[in-house]
C-alpha cells in the first residue's frame, strides 16, 4: 500500500500535481507523455507535437522504459534493456527509490534532468515543477506495476485478502471469467487500468479520493449475444434469450438503447393511455431573481436549494398541489440530485413547513430510526405510513419500485405529482457516462465487421481514434448544456429523457393521471430571464424536438407505444418561452 500512500500524499500536498493531473483519468503512460511536453515547453493542444524530433526521441525512451519496467519480471529481455541504456537504468533507479528514500530519489531525479538537458541540448524551465511532475508520474508507474501483479497472480494470492473486508473491491482484480477470453470485446480505448483524483475545487486538492478504474470489457456485448456467445468456438447456439424492458428502444440513448431489433411488442388489449401534465414553473427569490440550481456547487448550491424550499412555502405550491391531487393519491414526490441533497432538502422542508409527514429517502440500512428518514428498501410501503411528501434523488426511483395505494378497490400509483427541484444532469467527468458512450459506439462498429471490404487493422485504428475523441469530449471538458458538442448533446438528451420517464412511470401505475412540475430555472434558463429558449439552451425544448423527430423513424409505432404519455405531455408543455424559427421571434406557450 506504500505506493498508494505515496501517490495520495503528493496529490494532497502539491497543488501543482493536482493541476497537472486535472480531472481526467490518467495512467503513467499518459502522465509521462504530458511530462515530456512540459520538458520541451510544448502545448499538448498542438497535435503536431508528435512530429517534433526531440519529442520523438525523448518519448521513445519513456515508452521503452514503461514497457520494460512493467514487464521486467516476465523475462530477461526486458530487464536487460533497462540495464543497457543509461537513461532507462537511471529511471529504474529513481522509481525503485521512491518508496525507500525520498532524498535519494530527489537526487536521482535532478541527475536525470541534468543528463537529459545536456543530451538533447535543452534549456529547462521551472526545474522544481518538472521534478514534481516526474516524481508523480513514476510513482503512478510503480503503483501500476504492483496492481498488474495483483491482477496476474490474483488466483494465487486471493486468500490473503479474505480478512481485509474488501470483498466489493476484489472484482477489479478478478476481471472477466477466463472462458470469455477472446470472445468479449475490449474497450475501444484500450484502457486496462487508470486513476482519477476527485476533489472539490474549493478544497485545493485536500481531502480528495484517488479512484482506481479498470475497464475489462464491453459487457453489453455479452447481453446482446448471450444466445450465440460461444458459437465461434464450438459452432453451437445457446439458449434463446428474451430481453424484456419498456425503455430498451431509446434512439440515441447510449445508456438505455439495446442495440438489437425489436422482435415482439407485448401490450394489453385496448389499454387506455393515461395523461401526464408537464409544467415548467420556475421558482424565484423575494427579489425576483430566478432560482437556478443545476450547475451550482457546494455552499452556493445548498443556498439555492434552501431558497427553493422557501419559495415553495411562500407561494403555497405544496398546499396547492396536494389539494389538486386526486383522492387517495394526495402525495408529492420531491426530486433532488442525490441522497445527500434529499436529506438536506427533507430536513429543510420539515423545518420550514413544520410538518411531520415529510420524509427523505436514504440508502443507509441503519437510518430507519432517525426522524424524517425513509429507507430505500422500504419505499414500496411508503403509502401505508403517515407520509405525504417524499424527497428522493431521481435515480433512486427510476425503475423497479412500485409505490401503490388502493383507490376504489384498485391498486394505483400512490403519488400524484412529482416536483423536480433540480434539473437532472450528469456529474462532470462521470465515468459511467463515458463507458456507456464507448460501449454504444463499439457495439455499432462491431455490427459492421462482416461487411464487404472490412479491413481489421484500419478499422481498429479508426475506432481507437474515435473512442479517444469521445473520451476527450466527455472527460476533458466540463461544459454546461448549451455548450455541449451537438452529438454529445443528443446522447445526453435521450439518456435524461428515459431517466425522467422511468421515474414518471412510478406516478401512472394503474393508468392514472399524473403531473410533473419542473422548478429549476436551468430547465429553461432563457425563459426565466424573459427571453426565448431553443434546442441548445433548454433541456425541455430539446426533449420536445427530439420526440417530434420520432415520427420520422421506422420504429415510430414502437416508440409511440412505449412513451406516448410523456411524449404527449411534452408536446403540450406549459410555461416555456420557445424561439419560433419560422417567424424569427419568440412566442409564449399557453401557461393557463
What is the element layout, followed by pairings?
Layout: H1 2-13, H2 15-21, H3 28-39, H4 53-71, H5 76-84, H6 86-100, H7 102-119, H8 127-152, H9 154-157, H10 171-174, E1 194-198, E2 209-213, H11 219-224, H12 231-234, E3 276-280, H13 298-314, H14 317-324, E4 332-336, H15 339-353, E5 358-362, E6 373-375, E7 389-393, E8 404-407, E9 410-413, E10 417-420, H16 431-446, H17 456-475, H18 486-504, E11 514-518, H19 539-549, H20 556-571, E12 577-580, E13 585-588
Parallel strand pairs: 3-11, 4-7, 4-10, 5-6, 5-7, 10-11
Antiparallel strand pairs: 1-2, 8-9, 12-13
Helix pairs in contact: 1-2, 1-8, 3-4, 3-8, 4-5, 4-6, 4-8, 5-6, 6-7, 6-8, 7-8, 13-15, 16-17, 18-19
Number of strands: 13
- In round numbers, the mean pLDDT is 87
Which percent range describes the beta-strand content?
5-15%
What profile does the largest beta sheet have?
7 strands, parallel
Name the overall outline: globular
CATH C-level name of the largest domain = Alpha Beta
Quote the distance from N terminus to C terminus: 63 Å
The helix tally amounts to 20
Task: Name the structural class.
Answer: alpha/beta
- The CATH homologous superfamily of the largest domain is named P-loop containing nucleotide triphosphate hydrolases
C-alpha Rg (nearest Å): 28 Å
Number of domains: 2
CATH architecture of the largest domain: 3-Layer(aba) Sandwich
Helix content: 40-55%
Uncertain regions spanning at least 5 consecutive residues? 584-592
The CATH topology of the largest domain turns out to be: Rossmann fold
Strand order of the largest sheet: 3-11-10-4-7-5-6
Amino acid at each position: 500500500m506504500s505506493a498508494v500512500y505515496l501517490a495520495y500524499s503528493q496529490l494532497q500536498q502539491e497543488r501543482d500535481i493536482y493541476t497537472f493531473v486535472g480531472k481526467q483519468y490518467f495512467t503513467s503512460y499518459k502522465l509521462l507523455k504530458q511530462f515530456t511536453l512540459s520538458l520541451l515547453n510544448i502545448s499538448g493542444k498542438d497535435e503536431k507535437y508528435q512530429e517534433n524530433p526531440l519529442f520523438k526521441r525523448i518519448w521513445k525512451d519513456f515508452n521503452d522504459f514503461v514497457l520494460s519496467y512493467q514487464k521486467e519480471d516476465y523475462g530477461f529481455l526486458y530487464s536487460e534493456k533497462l540495464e543497457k541504456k543509461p537513461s532507462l537504468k537511471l529511471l529504474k533507479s529513481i522509481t525503485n527509490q521512491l518508496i525507500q528514500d525520498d532524498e535519494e530519489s530527489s537526487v536521482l531525479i535532478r541527475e536525470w534532468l541534468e543528463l537529459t538537458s545536456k543530451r538533447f541540448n535543452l534549456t529547462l524551465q521551472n526545474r522544481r515543477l518538472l521534478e514534481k511532475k516526474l516524481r508523480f508520474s513514476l510513482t503512478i508507474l510503480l503503483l501500476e506495476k504492483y496492481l498488474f501483479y495483483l491482477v496476474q497472480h490474483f488466483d494465487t494470492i486471493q486468500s490473503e485478502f479474505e480478512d481485509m473486508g474488501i470483498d466489493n473491491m476484489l472484482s477489479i482484480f478478478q476481471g472477466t471469467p477466463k472462458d470469455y477470453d477472446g470472445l468479449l470485446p475490449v474497450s475501444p480505448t484500450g484502457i486496462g487500468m487508470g486513476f482519477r483524483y476527485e476533489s472539490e475545487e474549493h478544497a485545493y486538492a485536500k481531502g480528495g479520493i484517488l479512484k482506481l478504474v479498470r475497464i475489462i470489457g464491453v459487457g453489453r456485448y455479452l447481453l446482446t449475444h448471450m444466445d450465440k456467445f460461444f458459437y465461434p468456438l464450438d459452432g453451437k447456439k445457446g439458449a434463446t434469450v428474451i430481453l424484456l424492458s419498456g425503455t430498451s428502444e431509446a434512439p440515441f440513448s447510449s445508456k438505455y438503447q439495446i442495440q438489437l431489433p425489436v422482435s415482439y411488442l407485448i401490450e394489453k388489449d385496448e389499454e387506455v393511455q393515461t395523461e401526464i401534465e408537464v409544467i415548467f414553473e420556475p421558482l424565484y427569490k423575494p427579489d425576483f431573481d430566478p432560482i437556478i440550481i443545476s450547475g451550482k456547487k457546494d455552499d452556493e448550491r445548498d443556498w439555492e436549494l434552501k431558497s427553493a424550499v422557501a419559495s415553495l412555502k411562500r407561494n403555497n405550491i405544496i398546499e396547492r398541489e396536494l389539494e389538486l391531487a386526486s383522492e387517495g393519491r394526495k402525495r408529492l414526490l420531491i426530486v433532488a440530485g442525490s441522497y445527500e441533497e434529499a436529506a438536506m432538502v427533507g430536513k429543510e422542508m420539515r423545518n420550514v413547513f413544520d410538518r411531520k409527514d415529510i420524509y427523505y429517502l436514504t440508502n443507509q440500512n441503519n437510518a430507519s430510526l432517525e426522524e424524517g428518514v425513509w429507507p430505500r428498501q422500504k419505499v414500496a410501503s411508503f403509502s401505508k405510513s403517515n407520509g405525504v411528501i417524499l424527497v428522493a434523488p431521481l435515480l433512486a426511483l427510476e425503475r423497479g419500485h412500485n409505490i401503490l395505494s388502493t383507490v376504489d378497490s384498485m391498486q394505483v400509483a400512490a403519488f400524484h405529482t412529482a416536483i423536480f427541484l433540480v434539473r437532472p444532469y450528469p456529474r462532470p467527468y462521470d465515468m459511467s457516462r463515458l463507458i456507456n458512450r464507448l460501449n454504444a459506439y463499439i457495439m455499432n462498429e462491431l455490427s459492421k465487421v462482416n461487411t464487404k471490404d472490412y479491413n481489421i487493422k484500419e478499422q481498429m485504428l479508426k475506432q481507437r481514434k474515435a473512442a479517444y475523441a469521445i473520451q476527450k469530449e466527455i472527460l476533458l471538458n466540463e461544459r454546461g448544456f448549451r455548450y455541449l458538442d451537438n452529438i454529445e448533446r443528443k446522447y445526453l438528451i435521450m439518456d435524461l429523457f428515459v431517466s425522467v420517464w422511468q421515474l414518471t412511470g412510478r406516478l401512472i401505475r394503474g393508468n392514472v393521471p399524473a403531473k410533473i412540475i419542473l422548478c429549476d430555472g436551468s430547465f429553461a434558463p432563457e425563459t426565466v430571464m424573459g427571453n426565448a429558449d431553443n434546442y441548445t439552451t433548454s433541456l425541455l425544448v430539446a426533449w420536445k424536438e427530439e420526440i417530434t423527430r420520432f415520427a420520422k423513424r421506422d420504429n415510430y409505432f414502437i416508440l409511440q407505444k412505449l412513451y406516448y404519455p410523456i411524449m404527449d405531455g411534452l408536446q403540450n408543455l406549459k410555461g416555456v418561452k420557445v424561439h419560433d424559427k419560422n417567424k424569427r421571434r419568440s412566442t409564449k406557450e399557453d401557461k393557463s
